[in-house]
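Case study: Glycoside hydrolase family 31 N-terminal domain-containing protein.
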Amino acid sequence: MPVRLSIANKLCSELLGGLLLIEGEILSCSSTTDRKLNFFIETVRPKDTVQCYRVRWEELVPHIPVEHAMTYKFAHWYGGAVSAIQHWPISISGQEAPKPFVTSDIYLNRNEFGGILESYWLSSNATAIKINNSVPFHLGWNDTERTMSFQARYGDSPFKPNPGEAPCAELSYRVCVGLDVTSIHKYMVRRYFTKPNKVPAKAMFSYPIWSTWALHKTDVDQEKFLDHLELDNRYTRRYGDFEFDQTKFPNATAMFHKLKSDGFLVSLWIHPFVNYDSENFHSCVEKSLFVREPTGRLPALVRWWNGIGGILDFTNPEARDWFSSQLRSLRSRYGVSSFKFDAGETNYLPWKFSTRTPIRDPSFFTRRYTEMAIPYNDRAELRSGYQSQNISCFFRPIDRDSVWGYELGLKSLIPTVLTISILGYQFILPDMIGGNAYLNHTDGNRALPDRELYIRWLELSAFMPSMQFSIPPWEYDSEVVEIARKYIALHESIVAPRVLELAGEVVDTGDPIIRPLWWIATGDETAYKIDSQFLIGDDLMVAPVLEPGKQERDIYLPAGRWRSYKGERYEIKEPLHLTDYPVDLDEIAYFVWV
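Here is what the predicted structure looks like once written out:
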């Protein structure tokens, strides 16, 4: 019997005081000293190089939570969810009682779990954990004891049992161990994640997207939009309308037709809310299209960043059809190519709510919302995702602030993209170059982001799957314009072809396009901790400058044969550390495998 089963045997007999049953590779308990339960650990060997342990603890008495403590002191961990302060590997601080593991808007709720989330973790010691989707899962931690708490419960929680079922908690998950971190992740992705069934439009990878948001916010009109090609917030009179504001856009139909004839494709910002002052609010109430309060008799009013209204119930086929018809109307009337689907996180649902089709896990609402993007997935953009890898469109991390640091700043970008990639989302749009230039969240002495920050952000974005501008480079000076031209051309000529090649492979394998350095250096402790470099595939390594005032940086070069962007060649059998490697303001260090 494997060692871990022996440990489980000891736990069952000594801690539970229960009845043991051991059959081959299964250990089970049917009771403790005070109640009946179902508990088992089963070992399975799905392939020669992988061994897995199925763990299940099911309470048969209602309202008793199940909690397992998992130590993280012996390895570096990755995955779970995006966060406002993003590190790679995961950095845990403080103590947190187990809280619902559900999607949330971390721009407004910075201590919660983010909008792209999966109950999956991966460690540097080649161990992976996948929580079953049926679990009412809560996650806590303690940095003193260096443990994470996995908890299942229904009490004081937005999770609900299925209709007619008693609220008996079940904690079930699988722990798999492989030869190395890369190979075990490949196994888990193929076993537990859905994969995209197609690749978005080539142009989304090759050419920049231009958004109105960071430069104009809600103060957008026809004249300002003609400088941009993704129309963001407040083009309608009220939120929940699907008609253009005639004051701001006096001739929207002709404007869109002219753009289309000139070869431009336009996307519109869209969201799941209908504010109470919208013309559509009353009809949506009459048709029962909104998420409702727990009794199901009345629509639930919710507050979001642009007001108060109802949130469409995407478990309701009628609500889905209504929303889809509004999008189709915009597309046919104006020739809109696609949509930027905003929000979708569960924090915009009431704490207690009801939907047409009951859902146990609130994040399943996020999944249902992301499905609305499927007809437009060639060019669609989503910012939330849960079990949504097969939606096959671009996913965008939550808005970044125009700052340098790890809290929604430039330094958070690589850890965030790596985390999203490990969770199975490979078509990534890394938000707007320079950040969103929000008031009081911008480094610099003017409304624009700091000039150096903007340039470094631009250089990094050129090596991401897609580039997005809002603040145009000509808001600065001619030097910034030339740097932008250089990196747009580099993205189109070097980065996009390689990314498109890898994107085609994602459909078959689910492997990341943007990869951590440990992907090709699985036994190197240093590689496990690097958060400021990344790989595109296995053969293009990128090392941007992420510190203000710096024109040099330390670079970790994995063993192999590399050629730098300057033409230097490195043939090394062991990893090499390049100290204070010179990188001018108009440069980003990158190395190609030769």
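For the exam, be able to explain this: Confidence is low (pLDDT under 50) at residues 1-24, 220-228.
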